[in-house]
Amino acid sequence: MSASQTRAFLEKHGLAARRDLGQNFLVDAEIARRLVTLAGVEAGQGVVEIGTGLGILTRALAERGARVWSVEIDAGLVRALRADALLPADVTLIHADALELDLGALVREAGPDAKLVANLPYSISAPLLRRLLDLRDELVDWSVMLQRDVAMRLLAEPDTRNYGSLAVLHRLTVALERGMDLSPRCFFPVPRVRSTFVRMRPLRDTGLDREALARLEGVVRAAFGQRRKTLANALRAGGIEEAGPAIARIGRLPTVRAEQLAPQEFLALARALGRVPEPG
Q1: How many CB atoms lie within 10 A of CB 204?
Q2: Alpha-carbon dihedral 44, 33, 175, 207, rounded to 10 degrees
Q3: Cis bond leading into 189, ω under 30°?
Q4: Cα–Cα distance between 232 and 209 in angstroms, integer?
Q5: What was the pLDDT predicted at 280?
Q6: What pLDDT is stored for residue 6 in this prediction?
Q7: Which parts of the chain sit beneath pLDDT 70?
Q8: What pLDDT shows up at residue 1?
Q9: What is the Cα–Cα distance from 254 to 277, expressed in whole angstroms?
């Protein structure tokens, strides 16, 4: 579906791209096929897609032979996709808000080899990425299209401007693979930013279940809550009073700043604080 065809389709159904939903529709079918390949989707595999849009990626997933459950928040788009039969008959189209939907139940319905693929608007990228970390044990992996600045935060290394809690939590729980950058011309309407496709594979035996990860997250978010302060002061400002001795236990001075700690040091710090159980 070209940009002109997309415009005609939306006009036909009295629709327009909604800025409040961050809608920039993928319109390049060949790019969609490449993304399905990068996501490692195989025939017969269950795939949950978040953000049906105009169905370009949905159709590419179905062409690969995947069993697809596609979630779309926009009721107008859902009606239009059904009215014009733009999706293969065996695709399950779900009208729902992905942030409110029971994703765990949907992933379990997709089967034990379930993957997730998503084109995430900026407004929900961080909270949804965090939710996916809690589904690590139920997904083979997940691949997401993000605005490039979110992807840079996700992939950031310690002691860089983009490094923060998003990178720390992901580095401790998943293996990250940067797939490809997409030109704004792949979308309609054309966004002002580039997009990046990232694949995430869960790390096994991390010792971080949901509760432990949530406790670790509390430490990490407090540490980055006031980036200009030293780590000790930032943690104290975040309500963690016993920061000094714990920082010393991991071999760091209290004057160190949060962005200087590697992800494994944050895990060691959370353990030194008694927030996360010691391994074994």
Answers
A1: 7
A2: -30
A3: yes
A4: 26
A5: 66
A6: 84
A7: 1, 280
A8: 66
A9: 23
List the one residue out of 153, 120, 114, 154 whose CA is nearest residue 135: 114
Contact 231, 261 (CB under 8 A): yes
* pLDDT score for 11: 86
Maximum Cα–Cα distance across the chain: 65
Q: How far is CA 5 from the centre of its chain?
A: 29
Backbone dihedral angles phi then psi of residue 127, each to the nearest 5 degrees: -65, -35
* 171-191 b/e (C-beta count within 10 Å ≥ 16 → b): bbbbeeeebeebeeebbbbeb
pTM score, two decimals?
0.92
DSSP the chain: --HHHHHHHHHHTT----GGGT--EE--HHHHHHHHHHTT--TT-EEEEE--TTSHHHHHHHHTT-EEEEEE--HHHHHHHHHTT-S-TT-EEEES-TTTS-HHHHHHHH-TT-EEEEE--HHHHHHHHHHHHTTGGG-SEEEEEEEHHHHHHHHPPTTSTT-SHHHHHHHTTEEEEEEEEE-GGGEESPPSS-EEEEEEEEPSS-S--HHHHHHHHHHHHHHHTTTTS-HHHHHHHTT-TTHHHHHHHTT--TT--GGGS-HHHHHHHHHHTTSSPPP-
Which residue ranges form the domains of the chain, and what is each CATH number? 3-202 (3.40.50.150), 210-272 (1.10.8.100)
What is the Cα–Cα distance from 1 to 60, expressed in whole angstroms? 12
Q: Report the DSSP pairing between strands 174-182 and 141-147.
A: unpaired
Q: What is the dihedral of CA 214, 195, 202, 90, to 10 degrees?
A: 110
